[in-house]
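User: I'm curious whether this sequence folds into something compact or stays loose and floppy. Could you predict its structure so I can see for myself?
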Amino acid sequence: MSTDISQLPEKPISLNYSLERRKTRILIFWLLVFMDSVAFPIGLYYLLTRCTTLSTTTIFNILTMTLFGTFLTETLQRSWSLWRKKSTVRVRNTGRYYFDFTHWHILVSWIIIIAELVLGTIPEPPWIRMLAMPVPSLFFVFSIEMLIFEFMYIFKIPVPFRISSVPKGDPMRPALYPLLEDIIAVDGMGQTEFRDHLNQRYNASPPFRSMLHRLTMLWMIPQMLVAGGTLAGIVIADHELAYTLGWSVPAIWAGIWAMVMAIRIRVELRRERHYW
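Assistant: Here's the prediction. I'll summarize afterward.
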């Protein structure tokens, strides 16, 4: 069956979303994440070990209680945004208490974080290598998931369950697709309309589909290497260096690579415009 060229759009379907008006909010959020997940764990550790006579157990109990405040606040805010009766960010045609795919990611992250922090603080003295692992282990687990999803996308394997706006049985989409959809719709306040526009753009634009695949690979492979390398460093380095590596390397890489991704996205969108 041939396609009627006259029915194709003359330019990419607009997502009706811009980051320009949200730059300050995004900057503040990531600054809080950096303070909460990098500066506090490392800075407070060295401050307490060098300037106090507190036991190692007490120090790590204090550290554990101060971690991930921004992450917790974001989790609660997302839950409310998705669950409230007149939610404007929920996946279309789903029930009130449906979690989007990214929210399941967050819940799994909490399980991994809590398990490692509990296992690390139970021994006397605390198991410092385990306490250094939450961030790199999350990176590694989710890079493996992205690899599986990308394999499914390449070989056109249908999704076994609903993934945000992608219904069960539909062909798998690039692994970045549901993350992009959920984060912008809920956290970026693009709302349910953004989910619809993203789906329309994906279906209508072959370069857009290819772009998401290339961007997924550009993020996934380095993430897996950084996570694996950091975990290896935690195992072989001395305790203090292992702790510093675990809480610094993944975050520093993510910050740098996010800027690389932003540049690459501009290049890819320019390529898409040339196609049209």
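Summary: DSSP finds ten helices and no strands in the chain. The chain has one domain: 20-275.
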